[in-house]
Amino acid sequence: MEEKVKALIEEIKPFLAQDGGDIEFIRLEDNYVYIKLTGACRNCMFQDDTVAFGIEALFKDRIPEIEGVINVDL
Questions:
Q1: Confidence band for 74, pLDDT divided at 50, 70 and 90
Q2: What angle do CA 64, 67, 73 make, to 5 degrees?
Q3: For residue 61, what pLDDT band results from cuts at 50, 70 and 90?
Q4: Contact 71, 51 (CB under 8 A)
Q5: HSE on the CB side for 71, CA within 13 Å?
Q6: With the C-alpha atoms ordered 49, 52, 53, 59, is the resulting torsion angle positive or negative?
Q7: Which backbone phi and psi does 71 adopt, to 5 degrees?
Q8: Exposed, middle or buried, 2 (CB in 10 Å: 0-12/13-18/19+)?
Q9: Contact predicate 47/69, CB 8 Å
Q10: What is the C-alpha end-to-end distance of the chain, expressed in Å?
Q11: What own/partner pairs with CB < 8 Å and gap ≥ 24 does 11-16 have?
Q12: What whole-number distance in Å separates Cα of residue 51 and Cα of residue 73?
């Protein structure tokens, strides 16, 4: 499943890059995907919406086993 997650992250990257942002895969644990938004996305006031309504929704649609997506700030 981790390979599916990483492949989907690669699909998301160009969309975030259009606004100067990026996404990094941190880990997959207990069916939760841990990511880190970087670039312009890191300080964007809409990052929670991007994660919940964009990234997490896409993951749950494409990989039903995923329980959620957690944005971490390392």
A1: low
A2: 130
A3: very high
A4: yes
A5: 19
A6: positive
A7: -90, 120
A8: exposed
A9: no
A10: 24
A11: 12/55, 12/58, 16/41, 16/50
A12: 13
pTM of the model: 0.91
Q: Residue 44 has what pLDDT? A: 87
| Two structure tokens written together for 55 | 């990234």
47, two tokens: 């990052």
List the domains of the chain with CATH numbers: 2-71 (3.30.300.130)
Of 15, 9, 49, which Cα lies nearest the Cα of 28?
A: 9
Residues 28-58: pLDDT tens digits? Answer: 999 999 999 999 998 889 998 999 999 999 9
pLDDT tens profile 6-24: 999 999 999 999 999 999 9
